[in-house]
Every structure is written in structure tokens, then in C-alpha cells.
Write a structure and sequence with these properties.
Layout lengths: L16 H8 L16 H9 L9 H11 L18 H18 L2 E6 L5 E6 L5 E5 L5 E6 L6
Antiparallel strand pairs: 1-2, 2-3, 3-4
């Protein structure tokens, strides 16, 4: 989490009720933070495990396959994420296990703007790897996140 701390900004001295609630729930504050209601773990699971249209893959498994395929042929190893293998059902189950593990090990939770029109919910573990959900226009799983690189 050390390299994630560079993104934190101080809490307001005169907090709004939304900011106070956000802080009390243990979420972090960055320059782009929006003080929205945090999605429930059940909602995160539902959107992650929803079947991707036209396949038997879950939305989360489809995103994991895309994450591994970004640089040409599928990577064999990764420092954190487990490569999707087997049937679509097996890939979906493996991806769900990675979601469960991430939810257990989350040390960073933030709701923030990516741009003028997109607000996301982001979770990360102590190594900096994470997952992200769109919150606008509705909650939907967006993808897997790599750890920030120190520059």
C-alpha cells in the first residue's frame, strides 16, 4: 500500500455528512473521490458473476481473460492474478475465487471519477492489485487492475 499513499489527500476540517460517513466506513480520499454510497459485497458479487452475453463465462471471467490477453498470446504467469484455464464454467469459478480473495484482502476502497462522466468503485490489496466497477450509469464490473508502478 506504500505506493498507493501518494494518491491520498487530507480529509476536510469541516466535513460534510457524506464525507464523514465515507471516512467512517474506512474508504480513502483522493483528488477525484466522490462521496457516494459504497456498493454492497452482494452487489459486487452479482455484477462480477453475471453471465457475459453470448457465453457461459461470467463477466469477471471474461474480464480476466481479456486482462491476460492484452499483450498478444495469453501470459503463462503473473505476479498476482491466476491465469484463466479450463472450461468457461471453470474460468468463471476461478475468477470468482479471485474476487472472494480480493474482497478478504482489500486495504484500499475508493469511489472516484475517471472522467467527467464515469464514476468507479475501486478496491486494492496491500500489493496494489485491484478490481474496479463502473458506478455510472449503473453498477457493473469493469476489470482487473495492476499495481501502480513507482516512478
Amino acid at each position: 500500500m506504500n505506493d498507493l499513499r501518494k494518491f491520498l489527500i487530507p480529509w476536510s476540517e469541516q466535513m460534510s455528512s457524506q464525507e464523514a460517513l465515507y471516512r467512517a466506513k474506512g474508504l480513502v480520499k483522493t483528488i477525484a473521490t466522490e462521496f457516494w454510497e459504497e456498493p454492497s459485497a452482494a452487489d459486487l458479487h452479482e455484477t462480477f458473476c453475471r453471465t457475459h452475453k453470448g457465453t457461459n463465462l461470467s463477466v469477471g471471467a471474461k474480464a480476466l481473460c481479456k486482462h491476460f490477453a492484452r499483450k498478444g498470446p495469453i501470459m503463462e504467469t503473473h505476479p498476482f492474478w491466476l491465469a484463466p484455464r479450463g472450461s468457461e464454467v471453470q474460468k468463471s469459478e476461478d475468477a470468482r475465487r479471485q474476487l472472494d480473495d480480493m474482497l478478504r484482502r482489500t486495504v484500499w476502497r475508493n469511489i472516484h471519477r475517471l472522467n467527467k462522466h464515469v464514476v468507479v468503485y475501486e478496491i486494492r490489496n496491500e500489493l496494489g492489485y485491484g478490481m474496479r466497477w463502473n458506478m455510472t450509469p449503473r453498477l457493473e464490473f469493469r476489470g482487473f487492475l495492476e499495481a501502480h508502478q513507482l516512478s
